[in-house]
Amino acid sequence: MKKRLFDPFGSEWFGIPISTLALAQVYLLIFGRAHDIIFKYVGEALTFTGLLIFGIIFVMWVVSTVSSHGKKHAHWENLTRLSFIALIPIVGFVGNAQLLSIFGISSISAEISLFDFYVFYGLSLVLGVLLGYRLYTKEIAPREINYAIVIPPLAIGTNVFLAPYMITYYSGGVEPQAISFLVVMGLGIFFFLYIFIGSLALSAHVSTKMHESLPTTMLPVGIASLIVLNLFTISGFNSFGIFTLSIHTVSLLSIMLWGFEVWNFLVVLIIIFTRPSRGNLSVWAYGFPLGLFATSTLKIMAVVDFTWLFRIFILIAVMLNILWVYGWINTVLLVRAQSAKA
């Protein structure tokens, strides 16, 4: 009974909580602009739901891995599952930032968040190194190379959600300089790794055309959006006297990257309607990149004052809501299929 209960839980299930947190982020952003308390309540409810789901899945994943001898090596041998483990630090960065947004920051929460920042940053770096090691040394099956392998490089860039809170709270000390250095270093790591690993994933996907990995084609949208968010954050580090990046340069680069986001988003949108997935957890890969896309769109709108971008933001938000429901439908279908086989 225990084996049947915990067997289905691999690291790919972490896509559910991170997509839920992405949806929460969108509602919190809408509240910040519209100031309608309903959006705040929905966003907070989704944040707590996402973190609760993460806690449940994390426990079941750990129990499943520890209790099954075969699964102890399954994540090491399977690049996709190894990559999905990197969703853990992403949940950590984003979830922590949302909790600080909801409850505010105190001395205790600041200390905990600072500890979390360094732990999740280190975990992201370690997972990225392990993925690189496996890419160089493992005999890789074609099915293992898909856009999921860009998650570890992406993970280290998501520190940008938590970093501003830490820099603001600890301003005047040594922490802001250390954190700003890590943010810039993280941007370099995930940007150049994406050029390498993303190109590899694109080449493999184009050649194999595996239907189950189609949803992961949304991940480049998230990468480009995350670069935009990092650039805007780094432009605020000028006061430290370490980095100088003008907002005009950031705006130029961000709009260029946003253009790529729009192109990739439209391509994947066509894929969603023409090649729908059924009973596949990979559909949760749509969620977090869209959340990043929505966030970067509002960032750009705030700087360039193109109010029509808010309509694009609403379109992204609507699609994210639809795909979140779509993800649950696929999850239910998957669970039913696994139950029928048991």
Sequence-ordered SSE layout with sheet pairings:
Layout: H1 2-6, H2 15-34, H3 37-67, H4 71-77, H5 79-84, H6 87-103, H7 107-137, H8 151-157, H9 163-169, H10 175-208, H11 219-235, H12 247-274, H13 287-304, H14 309-341
In short:
This protein has 14 helices and no strands.
- As for the CATH topology, it is Glycosyltransferase
What's the architecture in CATH terms? Alpha/alpha barrel
Q: CATH homologous superfamily?
A: Voltage-dependent anion channel
Residue runs with pLDDT of under 50 for 5 or more positions: 1-6
Strand/helix succession: HHHHHHHHHHHHHH
- How large a portion of the residues is in β-strands, by DSSP E? under 5%
Can you give the helix content as a percent range?
A: over 70%
Domains counted in the coordinates: how many? 1
| Rounded mean pLDDT score | 86
Would you state the CATH class? Mainly Alpha
Describe the protein's architecture and organization.
With 342 residues, the chain is mostly helical. The protein has one domain: Voltage-dependent anion channel (Glycosyltransferase), CATH 1.50.10.150. The chain is 76% helix and 0% strand. The protein is built from 14 helices and no strands. Helix 2 (15-34) packs parallel to helix 6, helix 9 (163-169) packs antiparallel against helix 10 and helix 11 (219-235) runs parallel beside helix 13. The longest helix has 34 residues, at 175-208. It is globular and about 55 Å long. Mean pLDDT is 86; it is low at 1-6.
Characteristics of this structure?
single chain; 342 residues; mainly alpha; Glycosyltransferase; 14 helices
